[in-house]
Specification:
This protein is an all-alpha fold. The chain has helices at residues 37-57, 66-111, 127-148, 151-157, 167-214, 223-260; strands at residues 25-27, 35-36. The longest helix is centred in the last third of the chain and has 48 residues, at 167-214.
Length: 264
C-alpha cells in the first residue's frame, strides 16, 4: 500500500520496509499455487498486455485501423530501432519476436508500479528479472552456437590476436564477464531500479498521508511538498519503467550481436 500509517491508527509515521516486497498470501496459501499481491499484479499485467495486443490485431487489414496502427508502431519500434539496427535485417527478423516479448513484458510489469490499486512493479521481486535474464542468456548462447557451433565458446574465451601467454589472465576474465556477469547485471539493474522507485513513491505518499491526516497545525503543510515530490517521482518512475524495458531489450540484442559476429 501507499499508506505509511498502520491499520491500528497509532498516528505515527511508518516508513516503507523490505516487507513491502514480501506480502502475505491472498489465495491458495500453503500450496504450490500460492498467490500474493505481487503475483496477482504480475498476472494482471500479463493479461492486460495480451488483451491489448489481441484487440489491436484481431482484425488485421491492409489499411490498419487505430488499434492495429498502434500495435504495429510499437512492434516497429523494437524491430527497427533494436533488432535491425544491431543485428541487420536478416538476423533482426529472426530475433524480433523474443526481443519484442521481453520489452513488452518488462514494460507491462514495470508500469504497474504507478497504477492506482496495484502500486508495485511486478519486476520489483527477483523472480521475474531472473527468469528474463535466463531467457536472454539462453538466447545469447543459442545464437552463438547456431552461428559458430562448438567454436563459439572457444572464440568467446580465447579471443584472437592475443598472445597465448596472456590467455591465463584473459580467459578467466572473459568467462566471468561473458557467462556470469551478464545475466547477473541484467537481473540486478532491472530489480534495483524497480525496488528503489517503489520505496521512493511509498515514502513520499506515506509522508503525505501522515502530514495531512495525523499532523497537527502548521505541520500539515509539509504534506504539500511531499505530495508534489510524489507526483514528480511518479512521472519519473514512468520514464524509468520504459527506459529499463528498453535497456534490457537493447542489451539482449547487443549480446546476440556479439554472439553471431565473426569475432568476439
Amino acid at each position: 500500500m501507499l499508506v505509511g500509517v498502520t491499520s491500528s491508527g497509532d498516528g505515527e509515521f511508518h516508513p516503507p520496509t523490505i516487507m513491502e516486497f514480501f506480502p502475505p498470501a491472498i489465495l491458495f496459501e500453503g500450496t504450490p499455487f500460492e498467490l500474493n499481491r505481487i503475483m496477482l499484479v504480475r498476472l494482471i499485467a500479463v493479461a492486460a498486455m495480451l488483451v491489448l495486443f489481441w484487440l489491436g490485431t484481431r482484425k488485421m487489414t491492409i489499411i490498419p485501423g487505430r488499434g492495429q496502427s498502434i500495435v504495429e508502431m510499437l512492434l516497429d519500434f523494437i524491430r527497427i530501432n533494436v533488432a535491425e539496427e544491431l543485428l541487420g535485417k536478416k538476423d533482426g527478423k529472426r530475433f524480433v519476436p523474443i526481443l519484442a516479448t521481453i520489452f513488452f513484458m518488462i514494460l507491462a510489469m514495470n508500469i504497474t508500479g504507478v497504477i492506482p490499486f496495484l502500486n508495485i512493479a511486478g519486476t520489483s521481486v527477483i523472480g521475474v528479472p531472473v527468469v528474463l535474464a535466463i531467457v536472454s542468456y539462453v538466447v545469447f548462447i543459442y545464437a552463438g552456437v547456431k552461428k559458430n557451433g562448438g567454436n563459439f565458446f572457444k572464440l568467446a574465451l580465447f579471443p584472437s590476436g592475443v598472445p597465448k601467454a596472456f590467455y591465463i589472465l584473459i580467459t578467466p576474465i572473459e568467462f566471468l564477464s561473458t557467462f556470469i556477469l551478464r545475466p547477473v547485471t541484467l537481473t540486478l539493474r532491472l530489480l534495483m531500479n524497480m525496488v528503489a522507485g517503489h520505496i521512493l513513491l511509498v515514502l513520499c505518499f506515506s509522508a503525505t498521508w501522515f502530514f495531512f491526516v495525523n499532523a497537527d497545525g502548521l505541520m500539515a503543510l509539509f504534506g504539500v511538498p511531499t505530495l508534489a515530490f510524489g507526483l514528480i517521482f511518479t512521472l519519473f518512475e514512468i520514464l524509468v519503467a520504459v527506459l529499463q524495458a528498453y535497456i534490457f531489450t537493447l542489451l539482449t540484442a547487443v549480446y546476440i550481436q556479439l554472439a553471431i559476429s565473426e569475432e568476439h
